[in-house]
Sequence to fold (259 residues):
Amino acid sequence: MGDIQIIRDFYSFPEQTNRILRIFTPEIYQEQPHRRFPVLYMLDGQNIFSHPESAVYDTWCANITLEELVSQGTIHPWIIVGIDHLPNRMEEYSPWQDGRGHLTSEFLVNSLKPYIDRQYRTLTDPQNTAILGSSMGGLFALYLGKTYPQIFGRIGGISPALMFGGDFMFRYWDRHTRFWSKILLHVGSAEQYNYYGTELDFVPITEYFYQHLKKLGYSEQELCFVLAEGDIHHETAWQKRLPEMLTWLLEPTVGTGWF
Fold:
């Protein structure tokens, strides 16, 4: 299996605080020292790896899934960078309503990605850079994809909290970016909840957003909507579906520069 390095004191200048990073390099990274690799950035980093120091409860097991897909020849090997969330996750992933999403964005784009590209053998273009998150993290991944299409070409909005901020994301994503992109929208059919008196139905709003992007000109090659029958809003569901998510989102494409 690959290696996971945990950095506990990575300083974020925009946010004036330390961050925890979890960086997975696939097994082949050490075996082929002259090869460069694409990078997948995943939000809520404490929940994504099968590792003794990950979250106490269920995780995505992204490291195991990725190595299995690589061994099957389904996808190429990727570096995965997990970014733990800060104490106030809602503010951190909110680019509006007095949130701090603009500071999180600045950290990711101007501090974290340049550091990863300096320290690791990476492929740096949009086709080789992915961002993936769930719930508020899924919403924030979509925000990053629209704001920085020249950086994040592959965007995974998993069970995205699109209802947060009203119709903000629909208004914000007002045109095709004209950059190369693959956008995954994935939601479980059982993701319908009452949250402190507020009805949260992730299914129709995710499908509406898919239709919205289609109307903006995104093609079937650029866009994928998945309604997972019976799935709930939880890491166990996302772990189960991760192989199919990564198979589509990270599939090799012409001109990706792998060697």
Q: What stands out?
A: The first strand starts at residue 3 and ends at 12. The beta strands are 3-12, 17-25, 39-43, 79-83, 129-134, 154-158, 182-188, 192-195, 198-201, 223-228.
